[in-house]
Amino acid sequence: MTDPKQPVKLLVLPGDGIGPEVVREVGRIIAWLEKNRGLTFELTEDLVGGASLAEYGVPIRDEVIEKAWAADAVLFGSVGDPKWGHVGFDKRPEVAILKLRQELGLFANLRPAKVFDALVDSSTLKPDVVRGLDIMIVRETVGGIYFGNPRGIETLPDGSKRGINTEVYTTSEIQRVARVAFDLARKRDNRVCSVEKCNVMESGLLWKEVVTDVHAREFADVELSHMLADNCAMQLVRNPRQFDVLVTGNLFGDILSDLASMLTGSLGMLPSATLGAEQADGRRPALYEPIHGSAPDIAGQGIANPIAQILSFAMLLRYSLNMQAEADMIEQAVSNVLASGLRTADIMAEGMARVGTSVMGEAIVRELDKLQAS
Ligand code: NAD
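Structure for 3-isopropylmalate dehydrogenase, as requested:
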């Protein structure tokens, strides 16, 4: 639990494109929290991505990684700039986020898929299927088939080729991500569904055994169920509201989290968190970012939707700082603003009022004022 009297140390990395535009709106919320909730934030800002390439010739400096370790949490915007499309893969702006995840050992990616009542018609699914949807997908991100060995493409004696990737999970890798999922469930509806393919994969069998064991030993109060990944994909479209927290490996999580996030309608609305291992001093490295990229097509126009970034900050308050009341307030403020009919271009609908990035940010702060007064 964070002591509210201690300043919260945040590393803020706005990045490229719309990143700085949407991160600026979080700045308003931070100022509001300082003024109205007695919190103090110690903010350190630095360059990553194309912005860092332009200044320092690298997508991220070691110094920034050190600052990330020293912070209570990292608030990340987005990286990517077509201007750097010609450089080698290891110099691309996107390396910044990959390196941060790797260096901080961020193994659990959390992606909520929540449908705000006012946006229920934005989903491609029927309103009745998604109304009230609020699920959290926990995806293991540093193991599994994307990293397992052997891997590669080999040439066979007859000249044809064979591509190989290997799904590998160890007990400890499964235990740590399972604990994240169970912990989260306790802050939500207390239900976890673990997803694998134990019917055809030994790694899935081990996954199921280890999750079951962690549950029995440490989290017996949480409701646990198991589901095969193919069935889960189907259930997410058929009846997504049956889920609370889903926990799964890297490959299935990649696919299922994209599927689930699109149930909600717009990229501009979706936050995420990536958590690392708890350290000896009780702190846990964590990075919060919207799932969208730098959107070069709309950058600099002041029309980007800041809500995904603002909701990423709400996740930071909830999961890194245990400030549940403030996180709830921000989510409620977003919900109220949408209900009042304000929309950025990406979520615009007939009869609504179209606004830009900063008007949306200001409106959310005004809602916070109202919530604080009520
Ligand atoms: P993108 O998410 O940047 O944009 C996809 C589409 O969604 C665009 O039309 C964009 O205008 C729109 N969009 C995205 N966010 C929006 C917002 N907040 N408000 C309104 N509209 C929004 O994906 P892309 O175009 O495939 O990628 C652009 C760059 O971002 C690439 O360089 C890519 O590598 C990078 N990227 C970075 C991250 C990251 O930093 N974690 C994630 C994804 C993509």
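The CA atoms of residues 165 and 225 lie 28 Å apart.
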